[in-house]
Structures are given as structure tokens and as C-alpha cells.
């Protein structure tokens, strides 16, 4: 049984609660929650005559735009290295299918990597992330984990990295990425680098594994996060130069041709426009980056105040607090696992989050993933105001929401004796 | 190694030959080759604010429109039975993954069914189609084939039917569909009914297997063929009512959530508009249906005149001639297999077709699949003229193309001794 993607399932559950009149603070879904950049609607409308199938990998125009986009970010790229798809999710699935073998994942990591591996009948070798940042396995733990996995009959062949990371909202330091890539090379692993948050690194760029293992790293990315276009489903991959890259490209194109044919031509036109880095798009992403950073940082302060451990946010709109310091107080309120913690927050306080177990952690971990991006507003006007506000974290629909989160956590983690309310009563 | 989809690969090869200055008559690709219907560009442009992810299965609006569309075609449908996807290809893949077990296919059948089964590690049980029409296995041969397959260790669990059919361009008679469904029921097979050509049946509707095996038939379809929107990638499925249908829906939604998330929201808006059957769309499809029927019928006459066997076209824009009556003449020209026949037509006459072996037939079969839809014109003006012409088969860019096809085949099948030209010389 393939379960509904945890993130998408929670989003649909929240929409249903809201439709039933409940006031839900939605921190459970990684939708960028911002308006469409100027220029993109026109690119979409202008493409309405493009109704033919076109090449599987994408049009020459779109592939050239993507190659230029990578080039301006320091990765020289030929158009034939690029392949478009309806989102980066199908690319990740097709890459796992193409490369073959078992899948090495950092823990925690994004919900769909392990689910895709399971769909393909592959084993997952899970390796915890280091303390300072997620998205890569702890280099100290990676090599022993590979040896143990091989001894247990697994055939680890591909390592998935997330730089910057979802769920932790951090950027792995270059030295960590380099160390992990060196181990991958020694062990003959290919690297899939999911870089869909790269444009949203709060303090500049992120260290792509493609710099450290250039001939064996394939990058997946898309416009869902940087341009808040999740609903337009625009993803693309950069396969490496060299012989392995050529082989991978043939395999990947073959699989793409049998599963999805091509990215919709009007969406390729949108991508071609956006990936040329026109000033309106660049400014839109810069404003989004600033907004994400400010609200995530304000949220981080609330989490620390409520007694959580939490890595400082460095990219995108995620935080990954650990409530382990409040384990005793939580136990007094009947909460002993991450899923129970997320359920208590939703049922008692109307705060929707995902437990760390959705990202591969044990259920005993008292971790949560919070996405702050759906706080930006419930109307286009509010979202636009958030994008341009000097202090978005103080806006009347954002500041009180952060206070509500802080109060909900404080209520559950308060060292004083539990009240009837926080011991188990549910919202009406 | 997953090969590039045969149809998409040939299309890209033809585009490359044309870019190199060759004059290729392209009969190898099932692109509908027509303009976009009035109203759809507006629906696409109006949807530019829909940038959120939305439900995996599709918006309530789009699902209601699809349910109404099926209802008006005699299949009462609730919105929750509908799931949208970026094309029907990913739906077929996800359905094979969800249902599990080995896959029973009519032979010949569309190129991607067997390729998808192979990607999923499933066996294919191939059963020839009856003489009068393709898309369903010959009922006389189906039951013995299932028994033989089981004896050989296969677990046949799902039967894929194509009604109307690609590659044969025919519509299986209702009695055949009913007989096949009865056998499927006896053997516990689920049925996937690919009905993407249903709107293009030349003489009315096509008998959906969902009428004969209602609780175990899932229908896949889309707008790529009826509305010539292959490049917009709009597909949808109708899962059956009842308990199995509910189970399938959960599985299918789970797999969809992990592979593609959802159909792009602007494309859902286009689908919602088109599936309401507005008059402009209905008229566009009626004109397309008439055009496909006239040109396919004119092509059929050329094929018979050149000595081929060929079922009369009944739907869409395909013909599936068999050159077996000319086997001796072809042998004298060095052509003994279907792939050699297709290669001779392309290299010696610049006529691009696909051999029957791409559709699961043995290479010894001298069958070809011809798609006539790319003859409608090389410019929007020509395609529009074809759509509205009283006698499109006589237009100056269509009639001579049919003559060229007839002459090419006649040259290869002529009973007189081969000339140096038709014995193997290639086009410059």
C-alpha cells in the first residue's frame, strides 16, 4: 500500500478542517504561498499555440535557458545535459529507477525519497544528519552505515542529498558536502542532489555536490519553491557531463518517454522565460528570500522561547524543532511520541505540523517540521503585502500566528502541572 | 535499459532529418496536428493565479466537470471517482503499479503498455487481436493464453484494452468487448480501458468495457487526441464505483502523490472548461473527427491499391496495413521484416512509419502503423484549412502526400523486377 504523501495528505486534511469551519494554523505544508512573479502570466498566455508534444527532454529554447541559468551559478552546462519534467518529483522517481540499486538517505529527509524507493522495491539505508545542518548524512556515520548495509545484503548505489535542506531548513557546510562526496566516490555511489531550495538560501548560495563529485552528481530542481509555482509543476534536472552522464541521460529520457512524455509546452515556455533571470523574476525571488528568512528567524525565536532545540534557519521556510528538552512535561500531558505531539498540537491547539517520523525518524523522536510559508496570508493582497513589508513578521496576520504557535508549544511544554485543557481536551 | 518510446524517438529522428533539409513524409507519430480550439487559450490564461499545489486528484471543479462529461456519455460518475494527471501515460503507469501482477495485452497494442510493464518488472501476456478490429484480444485465444501463462508461472492480473484502438484505428465490436470482459471477470482480471480516442470514433461512440465489467474497469483518457493538446499533457482516469474502486482510488492517489503530485492547476482549468462540452469545443471535435475520417479513408484506398491488406479505419487517424500479400516482391528488394520495410520506406522514399514490431508483433510481420494526422499541414493556416475543408483529402498539401505514399508502397510491392532505385538506393 502506497500511502498518500504525508505532506499532501496533511494539506488536504487541513483544507477539510477549514471547510468545516475550524481555524487551523497551517504549518504543515511546504507551499511557498506567494503571488506569481510579473512576466510569468504573460509567458503562459503567449504559449497557448504550443500544443504539439515536442521533445521528451524539453524544447531547445527551454534547455538552453536552463543551461545558461546553471552557468551563471558557476556550473558550466550544455543544453543537452538538461531534462524538464512536470515537477522535480517525477525526475527523482525516474532517476532512482534509472540508476538502480538501493538508496542512501540522510535522516531526516523529505517524505517522498523513501516512498519512491519503496515503490521501486529498493531498500533504504538511513544515515542520521550531523548536528549543525541537515540534508547530508553525517560523514562520520556514512561509511560504517554503508559497510553494515552491504553486510546485510543491500546494494547501496545512490545517495540523495538535499542542499539546502527540507525538513531542517539548513544548508550543509561545504566541508561536509565535500566529505560526503569523497565517501560516495570511494564507494561507487551516484549522487542525486535535490537543490530545489538553492535560490532561497538566506545568506547566498549553497554548496552543490556537483562541485565535488562532478561526473557522478545529477541535480534536480524546479520553480515550485523559488517562484512559488508548486501548482504549475515545472521541474528540471542537470545530468553530469562525461560518459556516465551520457548513459544516465539516455536511461532517464527513455523512462521519461514512457512515464510522462514531456513537460507541458506552455510550462516549458514559462521556464524558458524565468530561467533567463529577467530582472522582475530576480527581484521577486530576492523579496521572497528575504521574507522567508525574516519569518523563519522570528519563528525560531518563538521555538527557543518555548523550550525547543532548533537549528537556526538558513534557507527556505522550514524549521525542525526538537522538543526532547520538554520530554517530561510532554509525558505529563500524555504525549510521548512525535506523532502524538503533532496530533496534540492539531487537536488541542489547531496547529498543523508534521512529526519527524514522516521524514524517516523514529516515532520516539519529538521532532516536528514547521513550514512557515502558509502564514504569509490567505488572500493575494496579504501575500503581496508580506512580500514587500519591511517587517513582515510584525504584520497583523503573521505576528499573532507566531504568538499562537509559541503559546501552543509553551502550553504543552510548561513544567507546571498540566491543566485539564492541555492534558487532553480537544478543540471544539 | 529503457529505450526511448518508439513513437517519440521516431518523431525526434524525423525532426532531425527535416532540420538537415530532407523532405520527410511523416506518418510515424500520433500527434493530432490541429489548432487549439477556441476558448482554451482563454481558460489557460485566466488560470495564471492558480499557483498552489491543490489536491492530488484534481480540483473539485475539474473533477465535477469530468464526472459530468462521463455522465453525458452514459457512464454515471461521481467526482470522487475522477483523478487527473499530466497525461494519461502516468495514469497508466500508476494503475499498473497499483493493481500489481502481470499484464495481459492485445497484440498489436500501443508502444508504452509493454514498456511500462517492463519498468515495473511485470511479465506481459500477449494475445493477438481478432481479424476484424484491434484493441482487444481475440476472445477465442484469451482464455488459453491465460492458462498457458499461469502454467508458466505468470500471475496475470490486469488486462489493458484500447477502445477505439491505436495502432489499428479500429473500434472493437460491442460483442467482442463483452466477451473479453466476461473472460476477465471469470479469471479475476482488472481491466484498464484506454479510451483516449473515444471522441474520435468516426461513426459515433465506442463500447466501453466499463459497461460490461463496471466494478473492475478503470478508464483512462485525456485531451491530447480529441482536442489536439498532446503538448498540454492533460489526462484523467475514471475509477469504478464499489469497494474495489475505492481501494484502487486510495492506491492510485498514493502513487500519484509520490510520482507527480497533481496535474498543473492551469491545465486543470483548461480541462474543466473543455469537459463542460461548450459548443465551441464540441464543434471543434466534430470537425476534427470528420477530417480524421476522410483522410484516413482516402489513405486506406491508397493502401489497398498498393496491394496491402488493411482494416477499414473506424476511429482516430491510424491505419495498420499488412504488406504480407507482397512478401515475395519485398523480398526481391531485400525487405524481409517489418523494421526493414519501415527503414526502406524512410531511407528510399522519405516516408516515416513505425513497424508492427514496435507494437509487440514479431519482426517478421510486414505490418506498419501509419498516422495520417501530421499530413494536415505544416502551418496553422494549413491546419485550419484542413479542419474546415469540404474535401480535405484533396487539398494540395494532402492529396499529393497520399499519392507519394501510394507510389512509395507500389514501388516496393511491384511484382515486376526491382530497379536499382527500389532495390536499395537511398535518398540523398
Write up what this structure looks like.
2 copies of one chain form a homodimer. The model of chain A has no long low-confidence stretch (mean pLDDT 94). The longest helix of chain A has 27 residues, at 279-305. In chain A, strands 2-8-7-6-5-3-4 form a 7-stranded mixed β-sheet, with helices on both faces. In chain A, strands 9-12-11 form a 3-stranded antiparallel β-sheet. Chain A is an alpha/beta fold and 428 residues long. Chain A has helices at 6-19, 40-46, 60-72, 88-99, 111-119, 139-151, 174-186, 243-259, 265-275, 279-305, 327-332, 338-349, 380-388, 399-413, and strands spanning 25-26, 82-85, 102-107, 124-128, 156-162, 190-194, 217-222, 235-238, 318-319, 351-352, 354-355, 368-371. Helices cover 42% and strands 11% of the residues of chain A. In chain A, strand 5, helix 7 and strand 6 (190-194) form a beta-alpha-beta unit. The first copy, chain A, folds into 2 domains: 6-30 and 280-413, Aspartate Aminotransferase, domain 1 (Alpha-Beta Complex); 42-276, Aspartate Aminotransferase, domain 2 (3-Layer(aba) Sandwich). In chain A, helix 2 (40-46) runs antiparallel to helix 9 (265-275) and helix 4 packs across helix 5 (111-119). Chains A and B meet through helix 1, helix 2, helix 4, helix 5 and helix 8 of A and helix 1, helix 2, helix 4, helix 5 and helix 8 of B. Chains A, B: It is an enzyme of class 2 (transferase). Chains A, B: It comes from Streptomyces chisholmiae. Chains A, B: One of its GO terms (molecular function) is transaminase activity. Chains A, B: Its cofactor is pyridoxal 5'-phosphate. Chains A, B: Belongs to the class-I pyridoxal-phosphate-dependent aminotransferase family.
Amino acid at each position: 500500500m502506497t500511502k498518500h504523501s504525508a505532506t499532501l495528505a496533511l494539506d488536504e486534511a487541513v483544507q477539510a478542517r477549514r471547510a468545516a469551519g475550524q481555524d487551523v494554523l497551517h504549518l504543515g505544508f511546504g507551499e511557498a504561498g506567494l503571488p506569481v512573479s510579473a512576466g510569468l502570466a504573460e509567458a503562459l498566455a503567449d504559449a497557448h499555440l504550443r500544443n504539439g508534444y515536442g521533445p521528451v527532454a524539453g524544447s531547445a529554447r527551454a534547455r538552453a535557458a536552463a543551461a545558461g541559468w546553471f552557468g551563471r551559478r558557476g556550473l558550466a552546462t550544455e543544453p543537452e545535459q538538461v531534462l524538464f519534467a512536470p515537477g522535480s518529483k517525477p525526475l527523482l522517481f525516474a532517476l532512482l529507477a534509472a540508476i538502480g540499486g538501493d538508496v542512501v538517505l540522510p535522516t531526516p529527509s523529505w517524505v517522498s525519497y523513501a516512498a519512491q524507493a519503496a515503490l521501486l522495491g529498493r531498500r533504504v539505508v538511513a544515515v542520521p544528519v550531523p548536528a549543525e545542518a541537515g540534508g547530508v548524512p553525517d560523514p562520520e556515520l556514512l561509511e560504517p552505515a554503508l559497510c553494515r548495509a552491504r553486510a546485510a545484503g543491500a546494494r547501496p548505489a545512490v545517495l540523495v542529498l538535499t542542499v539546502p535542506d527540507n525538513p531542517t531548513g539548513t544548508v550543509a557546510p561545504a566541508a561536509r558536502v565535500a566529505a560526503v562526496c569523497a565517501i560516495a566516490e570511494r564507494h561507487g555511489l551516484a549522487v542525486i542532489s535535490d537543490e530545489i531550495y538553492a535560490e532561497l538560501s538566506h545568506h547566498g548560495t549553497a554548496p552543490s555536490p556537483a562541485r565535488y563529485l562532478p561526473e557522478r552528481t545529477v541535480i534536480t530542481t524546479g520553480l515550485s519553491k523559488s517562484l512559488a509555482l508548486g501548482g504549475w509543476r515545472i521541474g528540471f534536472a542537470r545530468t553530469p557531463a562525461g560518459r556516465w552522464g551520457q548513459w544516465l541521460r539516455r536511461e532517464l529520457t527513455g523512462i521519461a518517454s514512457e512515464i510522462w512524455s514531456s513537460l507541458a509546452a506552455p510550462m516549458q515556455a514559462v521556464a524558458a522565460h524565468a530561467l533567463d533571470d529577467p530582472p522582475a523574476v530576480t527581484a521577486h525571488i530576492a523579496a521572497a528570500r528575504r521574507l522567508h528568512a525574516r519569518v523563519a528567524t522570528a519563528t525560531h525565536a518563538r521555538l527557543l522561547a518555548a523550550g525547543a532545540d532548533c537549528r537556526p534557519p538558513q534557507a527556505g521556510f522550514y524549521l525542525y524543532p526538537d522538543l526532547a528538552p520538554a520530554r517530561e512535561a510532554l509525558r505529563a500531558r500524555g504525549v510521548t511520541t512525535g506523532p502524538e505531539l503533532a496530533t496534540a498540537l492539531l487537536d488541542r491547539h489547531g496547529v498543523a505540523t508534521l512529526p519527524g517520523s514522516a521524514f524517516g525518524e523514529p516515532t520516539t523522536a519529538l521532532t516536528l517540521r514547521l513550514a512557515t510559508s502558509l502564514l504569509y496570508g490567505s488572500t493575494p493582497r496579504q501575500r503581496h503585502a508580506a512580500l514587500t513589508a519591511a517587517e513582515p513578521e510584525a504584520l497583523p496576520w503573521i505576528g499573532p500566528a507566531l504568538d499562537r504557535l509559541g503559546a501552543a508549544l509553551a502550553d504543552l511544554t510548561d513544567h507546571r502541572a498540566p491543566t485539564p485543557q492541555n492534558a487532553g481536551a480537544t478543540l471544539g
